């Protein structure tokens, strides 16, 4: 019966200190399998490190000078857990073999002198088992990719629906969400799933807890922004900015980050709600605090815009010498599978999105020019915010811009 699997898709690595044994093995099984050989454990391990993706089955003689076969098999297990491992051993090594089997280090053992038909059948079963593992893992990755895409899509649109509900309290929230989505270059990329971890029941319990926590924090932030919005009064923008800078300076100093405020000329007074303006500045600077390493520099420059379309507006430019924005900024907000400890629910993505919502609430905008290094955020706030769009018009614009924006979804969805 013809085998349904391509047995040469992955290689068989045979490690033995006897050169004749290696040549005999390759000559005997080379027509059916792709054979790699090494004459000691160190060379065998080096091949696994360099070409591990190519190898499906590892056979090792137990008795070799230096490192023994059982030690090689255990180290191979740590490097490539899916690798099918087998030991070639004499009867005198029976106790060692039994221990290796009990510890789960080997698939099975082969006695010396080897019996060709027995070894051939064993290699067939071992390679088929490895290929089945790979196919099962590929199927699991495919299902997870579909799930990830669905969850990201659901969160993007869900955020849009929630933001639409804030129209009575925050102006232009949907435009802010869309601008934030368009912020970072490149695609989110596929999450690097550890498949063995996914098979544990505790993973899905922890995953559910993370999703609930992440969603709660998003809802909490939107509630904070809603509370910050209120009556507008004329404020001295320079004085307010300086106050916020001083409030956060100690946190920057504690992390070893230099924070500077550089106003140019007199700054315009703004007709805004002071708590929400202060909140926007706090969120922008907290984003920098979360993103930057020790030794970095942050500068917030301010001036009165002179360009015709924005004349009289407050023009803030936030710059740093850090690594800049990555796709992780979006992923930390929109991808529920993104659970890295250093980008938890308080990560920079969420605080930055909050700053976008407040900037657009005041009739302003935030843009980020593409730079080779560092982050640049340009914030423009009009002296007097224009009348907000009608909620229906704003919602319709969001649905059009998001659902019909193929480039946006291509970046957001790892498998878009």
Description:
The protein has 2 domains: 11-137, 3-Layer(aba) Sandwich (Rossmann fold); 166-412, Heat Shock Protein 90, CATH 3.30.565. Helices cover 51% and strands 16% of the residues. The protein has 14 helices and 12 strands. The strands form 3 sheets. It has a 5-stranded parallel β-sheet with strand order 2-1-3-4-5, with helices on both faces. Strands 7-9-10-12-11 form a 5-stranded mixed β-sheet, covered by helices on one side. α3 (69-79) links the parallel β3 and β4.
Uncertain residue segments: 186-190, 340-346
Biggest β-sheet, characterized? 5 strands, parallel
How far apart the termini lie comes to 41 Å
Q: Give the neighbour order of strands across the main sheet.
A: 2-1-3-4-5
The counted number of beta strands is: 12
> Quick one: overall form?
elongated
Count of domain modules: 2
What series of H and E elements makes up the topology? EHEHEHEHEHHHHEHEEHEEHHEEHH
Overall average residue pLDDT: 77
Helix content: 40-55%
Instruction: Give me the CATH architecture of the largest domain, please.
Output: 2-Layer Sandwich
Give the strand content. Answer: 15-25%
Number of DSSP helical runs:
14
Computed CA radius of gyration, to the nearest angstrom: 30 Å
The CATH top-level class label of the largest domain: Alpha Beta
Structural class of the secondary elements?
A: alpha/beta
CATH superfamily label of the largest domain = Histidine kinase-like ATPase, C-terminal domain
Using the coordinates shown, work out and report the CATH topology of the largest domain: Heat Shock Protein 90
């Amino acid at each position: 019966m013809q085998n349904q699997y391509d047995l040469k898709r992955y290689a068989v690595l045979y490690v033995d200190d006897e050169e004749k044994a290696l040549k005999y093995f390759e000559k005997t099984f080379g027509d059916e399998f792709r054979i790699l050989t090494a004459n000691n454990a160190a060379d065998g391990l080096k091949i696994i490190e360099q070409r591990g993706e190519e190898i499906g089955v590892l056979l090792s003689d137990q008795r070799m000078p230096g490192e023994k076969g059982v030690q090689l098999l255990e180290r191979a297990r740590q490097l490539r857990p899916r690798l099918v491992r087998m030991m070639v051993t004499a009867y005198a090594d029976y106790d060692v073999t039994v221990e290796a089997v009990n510890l789960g280090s080997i698939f099975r053992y082969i006695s010396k002198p080897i019996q060709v038909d027995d070894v051939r059948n064993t290699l067939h079963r071992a390679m088929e088992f490895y290929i089945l593992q790979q196919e099962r893992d590929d199927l699991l990755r495919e299902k997870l990719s579909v799930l990830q895409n669905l969850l990201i899509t659901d969160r993007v649109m869900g955020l849009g629906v929630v933001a639409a509900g804030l129209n009575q309290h925050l102006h232009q929230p949907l435009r802010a969400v869309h601008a934030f989505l368009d912020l970072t270059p490149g695609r989110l990329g596929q999450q690097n799933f550890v498949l063995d971890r996914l098979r544990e029941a505790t993973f899905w319990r922890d995953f559910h807890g993370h999703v609930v926590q992440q969603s709660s924090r998003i809802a909490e932030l939107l509630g904070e922004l809603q509370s910050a919005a209120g009556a507008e009064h004329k404020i001295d923008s320079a004085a307010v900015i300086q106050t916020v800078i001083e409030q956060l300076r100690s946190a920057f100093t504690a992390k070893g980050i230099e924070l500077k405020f550089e106003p140019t000329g007199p700054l315009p007074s703004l007709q805004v709600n002071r708590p929400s303006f202060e909140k926007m500045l706090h969120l922008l600077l907290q984003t920098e605090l979360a993103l930057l390493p020790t030794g970095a520099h942050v500068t917030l420059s301010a001036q009165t815009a002179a360009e015709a379309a924005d004349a009289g507006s407050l023009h803030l430019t936030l710059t740093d010498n850090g690594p800049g924005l990555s796709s992780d900024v979006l992923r930390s907000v929109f991808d529920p599978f993104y659970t890295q400890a250093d980008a938890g629910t308080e990560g920079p993505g969420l605080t930055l999105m909050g700053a976008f919502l407040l900037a657009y609430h005041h009739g302003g905008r935030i843009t980020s020019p593409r730079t080779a290094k560092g982050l640049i955020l340009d914030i423009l706030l009009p002296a007097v915010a224009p009348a907000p769009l009608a909620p229906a018009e704003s919602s319709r614009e969001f649905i059009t811009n998001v659902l019909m924006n193929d480039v946006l979804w291509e970046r957001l969805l790892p498998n878009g």
